[in-house]
Amino acid sequence: MEQENKTDKLLEVRDLQVSFFTPAGEVKAVNGISYDVNYDEVMGIVGESGSGKSVEAYSIIGLLQNPGKVVGGSITFEGQDMLSKTKDEMIAFRGKEVAMIFQNPMTCLNPVYTIGNQLVEALKAHDKSVSKEDAEKHAMKMLEEVGINNVEKRMKQYPHELSGGMRQRVMIAMGLICHPKLLIADEPTTALDVTIQAQILELMKKLQKQNHMGIIFITHNLGVVAEVCDKVSVMYAGKMVEQGPVDDIFYNPGHPYTKGLLRSMPRVDAESYERLIPIEGSPVDMLNPPEGCPFAPRCEHAMKICLQKMPPYVEMGENHHAACWLRVQDCLAEAKKGNTETANIEKTEVDSHE
């Protein structure tokens, strides 16, 4: 697609639904999520394990494994329908247009090939014209950029000869080597100490600006979100319960789950000692999810309607919305005061709540 024909939106996901069909029944791992990623933008996706963060990422790049299947919705990348692409088209697409940094480098790096062979192969797979010598030079440059020293030696080593942190940095170099337009980073700094983590985050921000790259940053670490992300999507039990600019999510959270995540995170700006407050209860059974809000069984503010019906998204500010009946109550109160601008809820939803 030509530059002049591009919109601000690099990726558009609409009502995406992904299910795993198991002998015990259908598991709706992703249940109707929507979001956009713009050029030069970093979107964070946060949520506890099992919320569907990685599953939706695998759906984008066509790596969803059986028994998983996309059963509804659409994924559009620069105007291209990703769900209609063939297997061969997705092989050509991955790495060059969209790349992914996986969470566990030990299962993603081939143990019988050297680091150099794997980096060169990743580059030559998408650029047939590059010579082996130039590919090796580019691979060594990428290793240097992610903080690996003595790169000539590292190119000849096998994955088991490197530490966990080094293997993770190799994975990051492999994801960035073709300069993709969209990078999906699934917990990319998990195995790194805080010093190297800061260096890697700074590198990713630098390369993002250089290449006008969009990034989807999947993480449990809200501190990382605050450092690198422009906006945040909060996932719980396969649903996006809140989305908004990073400052709004941190300083004006609208969903009780988001507030619970923030309360369970240590704060360096705390004026005095504060005890961390964990979110009580257990994640919902995805084989038998509640009819209403999936967080209702664990929510200290849950009402009867929370268990019966999924709340609508309520606007809380510019590009900030949350799916919570408490926010519906707030909007109803504002509507009664005559402030119709904040009462941005369909009449049918208001009537059902009343």
Automatic annotation (TrEMBL):
Compartmental location: Cell membrane
GO process terms (BP): peptide transport
Official protein name in the record: Oligopeptide ABC transporter, ATP-binding protein OppD
CDD domains tied to this protein: ABC_NikE_OppD_transporters (cd03257)
Principal location class: membrane
Membrane topology: Peripheral membrane protein
Family stated for the protein in its record: Belongs to the ABC transporter superfamily.
Entry GO MF terms: ATP binding; ATP hydrolysis activity
InterPro entries in UniProt: AAA+_ATPase, ABC_Ni/Peptide_Import, ABC_transporter-like_ATP-bd, ABC_transporter-like_CS, Oligopep_ABC_C, P-loop_NTPase
Upper taxonomic lineage: Bacteria, Bacillati, Bacillota, Clostridia, Eubacteriales
Gene Ontology cellular component annotations, sorted alphabetically: plasma membrane
Organism, as annotated: Eubacterium ramulus ATCC 29099
Keywords associated with the record: ATP-binding, Cell membrane, Membrane, Nucleotide-binding, Transport
Domain ABC transporter intervals: 13-262
